[in-house]
Every structure is written in structure tokens, then in C-alpha cells.
Amino acid sequence: MRIDVLTLFPNMFTGFLNESIMARAIKNQLVEVNLIDFREFSTNKHKKVDDYPYGGGAGMVLQVQPVYDALTSIKGYKDALKIMVTPQGETFTQCKAYDLSKQDHIIILCGHYEGFDERIRDYFDIEISIGDYVLTGGELAAMVLIDSITRVQPQVISKDESHLNDSFSNDLLEHPHYTRPREFNGKTVPEVLLNGNHEKIKKWRYEESVKRTKKRRQDLYEKHQRGGNFE
Ligand code: ADE
Predict the structure, then answer these.
(1) What tens digit of pLDDT does each residue of 140-167 get?
(2) At the N or C end, where does the chain have fewer CB atoms within 10 A?
(3) Does the CB atom of residue 144 touch ligand 1 within 6 A?
(4) Nearest residue by C-alpha to atom 9 in ligand 1
């Protein structure tokens, strides 16, 4: 999968792309991430990419020209799924991460400033928000998308680390986990996990998942009860 990111702050991605599972996925060519600084496409002599809003008001607005020129410079941009990350988008979910992971090529535009010139929207297919709060720019949101899309790509996570039991993958939060030691400060590991009975362990984990979801996320619990697929 190829991901192109249009950003004014490519350096923000350095640590993210060079550590842990992301770095491994890139090294193994399971995903390719290109950072495009669209300031370089500004035709303004000061390389400005924002301007005052028509009609007045606070803040600056991202201009359409540098975004359009940067976007159309990307090879294969016409066939790519073009995404804007904005608080006005559809809320991102695990289900959308799975959907997006099936694309061959996505392009993500990270906004900044007070907003985008509305005409930018004409060149993008979908808008995604990572939650009901406002960030200073789209870079963190883009990283959230890239991370969650990458980790569900085939072969990115080994069978041992499988994402198939992730929270949300069946409308349930994950069951509790334990590792050594068996006892810490008088707190013990549930007996069922120690007896090697895999049927019982599976049942216990499922029940714990349901209990936890019911307690913490009534909305998900109800969806699970209805048998609805996660969305
Ligand atoms: N840019 C600023 N805030 C955002 C959010 N919540 N989601 C996506 N992009 C954003």
C-alpha cells in the first residue's frame, strides 16, 4: 500500500515512521509512506500557503493553489483515495481502518490554520475526523490513520501479535491480560488462565470482554447484543 501525505510539517512524522511496527512495515515494503511538503508548491514569493478569509474573521485560511498543485503532482493521484483529515469529517473507527487498509493508494491532506478554502474539498473524496476535539493541525490525525491502517495490513503483525482479537473488532473491548509473575503484591492471576484448558480460557475471555464492555461502553455493548457488525 502506498500512502502520500500532504503536510506543511513533514518533520513531525520522523519519529513515528522510524520506530517500532511502522518502521518494520516500511522496511519490509508492506507500506510505503511519502511526505510531500506542499509549501514547496506555493507560487508566492514568500512561499505563503495561507491568506485572510474573504468576508473577514479570525485566523488564516489554507489556499487552494498549493494544495492542488501538490496533489496533482503525485503519480497516480486520480486513482488514489484522497482523504482530508478535519474535525468536520466522519469519525474514524476500527471498521474504517479495515476498509482503508484494502486501498492500494491513499493520499492524506493535513490542514492547518483556521480552515481550508472550501474549494479544496472538491479535489478530495472523503473527510475523516479522529474525534470530537480540535488539534492544531492534521498531522497527528494523519498519523493515527496511518498507524491503524498499517497494523491491519496482512503480514504487518505476526499471528502471535494478531489484531483479530483487538478491542472493537467484534464490538467488544478486549479481555484482561496477565503475564508473569503469578503473584504481585498479593494480586494473583485468575486460576482459569493457569490450567491450560483452552475451551475454558476462551469462554472466560469472552465473558470478561462482555462484562468490561457492558461496564465501560454501553453503546458498544448494545450493538454487540443486537448482533450488529462493528462500524
Ligand atoms: N484536524 C484538527 N483536528 C482534527 C481532528 N479532530 N480530526 C482530524 N483532523 C483534525
Answers:
(1) 999 999 999 999 999 999 865 677 777 8
(2) C
(3) no
(4) 86
Task: Specify the residue with its C-alpha closest to ligand 1, atom 10.
Answer: 86
Evaluate if residue 183 carries a pLDDT over 60.
yes
Strands (E), the chain: 2-7, 32-37, 50-51, 61-62, 81-91, 105-110, 115-116, 126-129, 183-184, 187-188
Question: Virtual CA dihedral for 147, 153, 158, 163, nearest 10 degrees?
Answer: 70
* Annotation says 151 is catalytic: yes
33-50: pLDDT as tens digits? 999 999 999 999 999 999
Active site residue 114: yes
Q: What is the pTM of this model?
A: 0.94
Spatial strand order of the sheet with 50-51 comes to 50-51, 61-62, 115-116
